[in-house]
Each structure stands twice: as C-alpha cells, then as structure tokens.
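Next comes this protein:
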Amino acid sequence: MLQGASAGAATIVSRVMVRDMFAGREAQRLMAEIMMIFSVAPALAPVLGGWILLLGTWRFVFAALAVYAALLIVLTARLPETLPPDGRIPLRVRAILGALARAGRSWTLWRLALANAFGFAAQFVFIASAAIFVTDLLHLGEQDFWVMFVPLIVGMMSGSWITGHVAVDRRRLITIGFLGTVVMCLVNLALVALAPTPTGELGWPVAAAVIGPALIAFTVALLFSPIQLEVLDAFPHERGSASSLATFVQLAMNTLLAGVVAPLATASLTTFALTALGFAVVGTVLWAWDALATERPAASA
C-alpha cells in the first residue's frame, strides 16, 4: 500500500512540474518523454521480474525494489519547487479536499479523465493479462514474455517520440490517436481471426497475435501525453488536483480491468481483441463529447 501511494504521488508531481515550468511544444515534448517512461514501465516490469528470479528467490525482487527506492530518494531530494509561492495550496486536509472537490465538479475534467482511462485501457488490457496471454493463449514459457512486451515497448516508444516531435495541434493529435486506436483494434481483430491458432512455436500465428497490441500501443501513445496537458490546462490554478483526479480515475480503471474485466476477456485472442476495441470506442466517444461540449480553443500548449 505504501509503495502504491508513493508511486501514485510521483506520477502526479512529475506531470504538474512539467506544466509549471514549460508551455507549448516544449511542454508536449517533455510530457511525451515522461509518458513514454510511464507506459513502458508496466510492460518492462514483468520482463525484469523474470530475469531477477533467475538469480534467486522472490526475495531478490524486493531487494531490487529497495535499491531502486534508495536511488529515487536521492533523486527526489534534489528536485526544485516549481510552483510560485502565491500559487501553492497549504498542506492542510481541508484545503486539499476543497481543491479536489472543485475539480470533481467539472464535467470537462471528468470527460477528459474518463477518455484518457478508456483509451489507455485498450492497451493496458494486454499488459494486465500478460501471463494468460503469453502462457495460455500463445502457449509459450515463463521466459518468453519478451515476445509480447518487446513489440509493445517499441510501439509505445515510437508513438511517444512522434508525439514529442510532431508539429500538430494538440487536440488534433489526440483525435488522431483515438481514431487510430479504434482502427488498430480492428486490425488486431482481423489478424487474430484470420491467423492460425498459436501452438507454442514462434512463427506467423504468434506474430499475428502480438502485432496488433503493438500497433494499439503506438496509437495510444499519440494521445496519452497530449491529453494529460488537456487535463492540467482545464484547471490551470489547481493542476495538482486536476491531475490527482484524472490519475485516480485511470488507476481505478486499471484496477477494475485487471481484477474484473481481464479474467472475462481472456478466453481467446478474439475476446482480447474485442475487449480492447470496446475500450477504444468508449474512449473515442468520450473525447468526441468533450470536443463538442467544450468551447476552449484548440491549444498547442
């Protein structure tokens, strides 16, 4: 629980600090780099965990986490305060809850938070059910998670790199990301429907099963960092509260997906593909709702 609370705070603080210090293309570039790390970490963790277990028992995993935590303490101790004194909220429960309540009354923020959560879920469903996907459906071994995660990571990193360097209006880029995710989910559905059933051997059946998730990861990365900036700019004077609420919604969605949805979606590669498509469609509808209901000017910052 303490580890999760600390990780949740780090996600919010890093996003807000970027927007406090930068605007425009530079903010989008840096946010894309941060989102690339956040996206890659859940995919990379099972692979690293498998390698660590080759060295010893499960206790080695906690030892590695302790070393990593010590490194983070050293790095965070050197972080500067980026918010001007007149914009800071006192560290009091009443003030913090008041800011969260104000953010929670915004339909704009809820639309953005839910669109972000559902859009990311189209990719996260594969990460949350990686063990079943790799061992039960692809019939591969415990050391073969790289077969799924390497293409996923390549897709995430490629999409994040493009997001940080492309000269496209921010809201237009988010629209491209959502529509692209729906299209890639359809491509994934076609691939798993037409390809032979994997039998545990590396070849076309396995490739067809992992190409789709990699393409989905690519398009999700196009929308993931720009929509974080939309969330922050929806509440420019209380960005921490806005980011906290949006992050809570996303993590709640991830928890629901991993604990409830994923077990129901793992019957076959086809049900995986249909589940991802459903999340992508809902996220796209929510984003379209925000585009129609919001009169904020399209921003590039």
About this structure: The chain is about 80% helix and 0% strand. The chain has one domain: 2-81+105-292. The chain has a mean pLDDT of 84. The CA atoms of residues 17 and 90 lie 17 Å apart.
